[in-house]
Amino acid sequence: MSDAHDQPRALYPTGLISFNGQPAVHLRSPNGAQATILLHGAHVVSWIPAGHEEQLYLSPETKYGDSAAVRGGVPVIFPQFNQQGPLPKHGFARNRAWQVQEAQVRGEHAFAVLTLSDDEATRAIWPHAFTLEMTVSVDDRRLEMELAVLNTGETTIEFQAALHTYLGCGDVRHAQLEGLLDQNYHDAVLDQPRQQWIDVVTIAQEIDRIYWNAPKELTLRETGRRLLIQSHAFDDVVVWNPGPEKCAALPDMPDDDWLQMLCVEAAQIGDRVRLAGGQEWAAMQTLVIAD
Ligand SMILES: O=P(O)(O)OC[C@H]1O[C@@H](O)[C@H](O)[C@@H](O)[C@@H]1O
């Protein structure tokens, strides 16, 4: 296993690496797209589209290890969103070691499949049988992330899920998120329902919103960059940035780094998924560099 800091990651082929001391899968497609996924949480920590720079935010002060949730990248949220239930915040999937099932190049894309199944520790807090399958694929200027949930038990399970994507920004105050005109949302800062009256969301302070039944394509626009954020089978979208005060209070993020990120999360929150024994649910978030 080679360490991602020994040489430029661009030189790594698809396979297992160590990323900041953590076991990870590195993807490199023949057309030069790259991604890195930690086994801890099946957490995508880096996406570099072909011919472009890093697109995800990853906190330089994030903690790694058994009980840590990585700050940045794409945390997998399951089976509970935020504190909307009795489980630890955002559930347990982001804090567990996943298994790599495959990591390979096929045609023009490189992909990996990671899985997580119930064990004694998960059953102690969530008494259900399940297998999660996270498939991450890169090709040219596209990153696809699919989360599948299989109910491997006999009784119905109910859950929320999200791909909590931290998009990197040059300066979030100059970024625009487009595509949410007329959408109803829950404003978690005000704890009130609201409706979006203008198409463009701009960020100058804390924002924490759940858009219900949101459009399936949004655009993040910054100078010289147009990033499409597409989702499939996730009903909701969360837009989150801690803003200056909350960011300064986060122990795992530099005080000013709220300027460098915007979370646009593909999520299933309002209508919890109910899955009978033996059934499967799958949903996807895709990021595409348009310009
Ligand atoms: O600090 P955490 O547990 O990773 O959560 C970060 C944020 O995640 C977002 O999804 C929530 O809407 C916010 O309310 C929350 O603060």
TrEMBL record:
InterPro entries in UniProt: Aldose_1/G6P_1-epimerase, G6P_1-epimerase, Gal_mutarotase_sf_dom, GH-type_carb-bd
E.C. no: 5.1.3.15
Full protein name: Putative glucose-6-phosphate 1-epimerase
Catalytic residue positions: 164, 265
CDD domains hit by this protein: D-hex-6-P-epi_like
One Pfam family matching this protein: Aldose_epim
GO cellular component annotations of the record: cytoplasm
Signal sequence, renumbered to the chain: none
A GO biological process held by the record: carbohydrate metabolic process
Gene Ontology MF annotations: carbohydrate binding; glucose-6-phosphate 1-epimerase activity
Reactions catalysed, as given in the entry: alpha-D-glucose 6-phosphate = beta-D-glucose 6-phosphate
UniProt family annotation: Belongs to the glucose-6-phosphate 1-epimerase family.
Origin organism lineage: Bacteria, Pseudomonadati, Pseudomonadota, Betaproteobacteria, Burkholderiales
Highest taxon above the source species: Bacteria
Keyword annotations of the record: Isomerase
Organism in which the protein naturally occurs: Sphaerotilus montanus
